[in-house]
Amino acid sequence: MQNRQWQNRFSFKALIVLALAALLISACAPIAPAADSGMEMADEGPVTITWAMWGSPAEVATHQSVADAFMEEQDDIVIEILAEPWGDYFTKIKTLWASGDSSVVPDVLFLSPIVNYASEGVLENLDPWIEASGYNTDDYWPSLLQYAMYDGSVYGFPRDIGLEVLYYNKDIFDEVGVPYPDDTWTWDDLAAAAEQLTVVEDSGRVSRYALGMEGGKWMIWVMQKGGMALDDMRNPSSCALNEPGVVQAVQFFKDMIDNNYFMPPANMSQAGGDAAVFQSGQVAMIIQNASRVSAFNAAGMNYDVSVIPIPADGHRASAAGGAAWVMSALSDNKEEAWTFLSWLQSTNGGQRIYTASGEILPALQSTAKSDAFLNSGQPPANRQAFITEGENARMGRIGYFVEWSQIGGSFINPGRDQILIGEVGVEEGLNSICEQVDAFLEENGFPK
Amino acid sequence: MTASTSSQSSLPRWRRYQPDQQWEAYLFLLPSFAGFLIFVAVPVVASLALSLFEWSLLSPPEFVGFKNYTQLLSSDMVFRKVLVNTFYFIVTIVPLQLAFGLLLAVALNQGLRGLEVYRLIYFMPVVTTIVAAALVFQWFFNRDFGILAAAIWEFGAETGIPIRPPDWLNDPDWAKPAVVILTLWKNTGFTMVIYLAALQGVPTELYDAAKVDGASAWQRFRSVTFPMVSPTTFFLMVIQMIGAFQLFSEAFVMTQGGPANATLTIVYYIYQMAFEFQRMGRGAAVAWVLFIFIFIFTLVQTRLQRRWVHYEAGGES
Questions:
Q1: What ipTM, to 2 d.p.?
Q2: Closest-approach residue (CA) in chain B for A419
Q3: Topology of the domain covering B67-308
């Protein structure tokens, strides 16, 4: 009873007073930054470019050394780094853009996938800048620049090419007595070696798998067989995963898992990811990009790399993609942002520093073929494998349109899981994926 | 009551409580009310409007009417799977959590020595960070190198029985139970503590009377304990059901919604839609469907409680 009386007395007037007070408080907030930017305008000095990226502390340290090198070369531009962990970065950047306030949006950013942002009009079209400065875009790996293009224009410069190679643990190969992989290896050679490298205990427990690979990289096998996810990766009209080549590729992948040659991808991520299981000897080989080199070198591993084995009737098919540097369309200092951006993506500038750090396979062929990459004096010895894969890079691993993330996340990846677990047959599973993807494409008005 | 009135009249007039003078109270409420308004009320209303738009966060929203809702309910097969998953988690987690919580509370209410130690042990998971716990459980469940699997492999090797540990997080049939186990481990301590408080409020005379009447231990539990704690059961049921509807972190960290969307929950789907697929409007629509579900379920429970919840009239309160 007491409660009810109290509620009645809680008048609407009081509520309104509270609401107004709250609004006043919230309205105060934006006034302060406006005054700040006014102050900056009056200040005549070097222009500050905000440079945003994600990264681990070690990666951010490399970015900082790149910024320092740039600032040492000239006095007109100051680079300020805005670094966030991968998990928060994209939400933060989107929120900054949504605010529409050019004083808080970074001028140069690290982004992926580019098309999602370019199609929203928040990125600067780089074509006019390239033309005016004569920047050489032919130096990029084949198809790589496609990754950062939208509607026929370049909107970003991939920093590196995220193509994979086969890492192998030489100690395990020596112990088992299997010859090291080379350019001639086919899927059959891979399976034959895997049979010897895998260790299954009497109980049935697998104590060593031959090969580990993140589940998302399954498209390697599909593309080596000439397959693709969609008939057109920019503007699809139908799913292409029910082609015979794709069926064979997925069957190969599934057989490898069923024979215990291949560590199931979910098990691998639970066990700490490919780097962890490779370093601990739980797998003898992994398929991954150049990002693991510095960690394996730091751990002093006895390893090398090779090109990825291909089917006898197939071809090499590396993914031409990599996160790219872009310029915000909202930037107040585009001239300076371009100066920095083009310096970043030059063999004498940022590319060399990143390559020397051992974290990337550079996007520019001239950098990759320079001593900074090929003769760094560090393992792996067979760096030519990266060059060979790079020369065979092609698009097709991912879709270059906004809805791709939903097609992959809602239909293709769960469907692939179902096939690999054995809930459905390979052909049946691929057909079911295609039915869902086709329905989605139709519902969303593709082809556009 | 009389004591407080007499102490009031000894105060000077301006410090005396006056029922019609409450602006101070509103003033004290202001900080939390402003916070509520800015961070809860306004976004909630905004999300309702947002659910009628297609918005990628970067370009201006585009009005689409009820399309987000109609597509969701008519053609979205993933959403259907998400509903089934969420229902699975509700019907497993809620009853199990209540049963284990009550069981533990009854056990700890027997006047054991070192009661505080047990209470601490069982309550510890509740204050553990879910992300850390989920990562540890991920290791725990690993088929090849996890400790649970290792024990089963070892058992099989020793006894010669060809037993294999389930492929917990790779197999859709086992991934759901894995999430249930983690959730139970995490939350049962909370249920237990609330039940323990309720049990300590049950008058011992009732048990004594039942004993005199010759009631067995089970009958005493069935006819005294259970009805006496039924208001607590009701409270926990509503809270846990809402919690199960909102299951997210466990699946996000341990299974990433997989395998094959087997552990994708409604809240996870909201997150996917809004932040992975960049469809804020569609995400908001899912959120509102979730709200309606929780609202209806809570309403039904409130109606049904009259049949089984026993409120003790009078008593100390």
A1: 0.81
A2: B260
A3: MetI-like fold (1.10.3720)
